[in-house]
Amino acid sequence: MNIRSLLLGSIAAAGLASGAQAADLGVLTSLDVCDSLGLSGLTISSDTNCLQITGEIKYEFNWGDYKVGTGSAAAGQGIVITPDDTFSIAADDGFNDWDSKVEAWIRFVATADSDFGPAKAVIKIKDEQFRKTYGDPSAVDADGNPAATFLDGDDTGGAIFDEAYVSVGDSTVIMAGKKGSIIQKGDDEPFNYLGLFHSENVDAGISYSNGIDDGVEDGGHVIQIVSDLGNGISVGAGLEDLNDAQPDRAGTAVGYIAYAGDNLTAHVTVLATGVLDGDINAYAFHAGLTGTFDQFKLRAAVAGNHDNVSDTTNWQGLVSGQATFDMFTIALSGEAERVHDISSGGVGGSVGFDVSEGVQINVGGRYFDTDFDTDNNEGYQIAAQLVAAVTETLKLTGEVGVYGQNAGYAPASQTAGDWDNVFYGSAEVAWAPGGDFTSSLKGTAYSNGGYKATCKAAKTFQ
User: Do 288 and 188 touch, CB atoms closer than 8 A?
Assistant: First the structure.
């Protein structure tokens, strides 16, 4: 916090100083250096360097009866479509749940000219604070009475250097320090509006690290080089995760080749983890492509790995297509995976209609089977959505639907083969008045008694 306060205080003092005071500080009010480097936004320039400043603050608050786990799905009161609870719906357990989260970051990029291209020093300071409190009907107090709540997570935060690295170059850029990964893993999101269950589980897409016992760590302390070869082709290579505390996993070697044209984007990324000790513990890859042909879009992606620790090979794949006509859009998607000798997959589709200017209706569904070799492991969602842009800054979204699951993850009292269904409805108002400020209010209610209210607000600056 002291570091961040010092940086913010110094910048504020420089920015608010009069012309004479700025000259005394060695800071020029002219932006000639920034202009010559092609930099814009919130900047401060000196004789040789341009300092760009960007940042963001996000806040989210949730309240209701939505916690899945103890007292909910685990007690047969909720619905769990996949074993990891990612797509779970809690039932009314009589206790309120809530969580509050603040995320903030500020990024400084100091750029100067060099014989090899722009030379940069990047510092990104990040702070995150959250508190999660959930009801638990199984918890009791000292007298044996039900306890209303228990603390699930609490982080008082504290500023950290999320990025701290240097780079130099123009079409070819060399980077070293602490930063994110250069791994290319796009071209893998489904087009249908509900998405796919497993795709959502890995934050929209497919994962190259699923099923690896020791995981695949990337980013962190890195040495990287990327190059634009022209004609839409770019390549990159690097050593990442050099600071890993686990010796057998430290060091991830990364290489990729990518193409971005008018009608086609594609990439192939290969990885090897644990390279520093000379004993590689896993190999992995991620590849994807998206083609656009008039009103049609096609996408395919595949990722996989071989885990040397468990001697297993795991993979995931996804295909998706979209066709846009005068007033409606059709999208179909499918996904499949095999992890630790268990095969699973799902499908999804949607149709979108432009009812009038600013009003759209989406209807869709998705289905997932967590194990092709056994029964009672399936789940689905069907939904209809109305999106209305009331004004240029105000958007309303309403949705109704149903989640269903086979009795394999339903209450034990059900007969195998029965389906447990939960209906829901939600309404959201989103407001974006400009100035990079966004906010929203959303409420969701479920037929099994669960409910959730969410408030979000965010502001970025650059």
Answer: yes
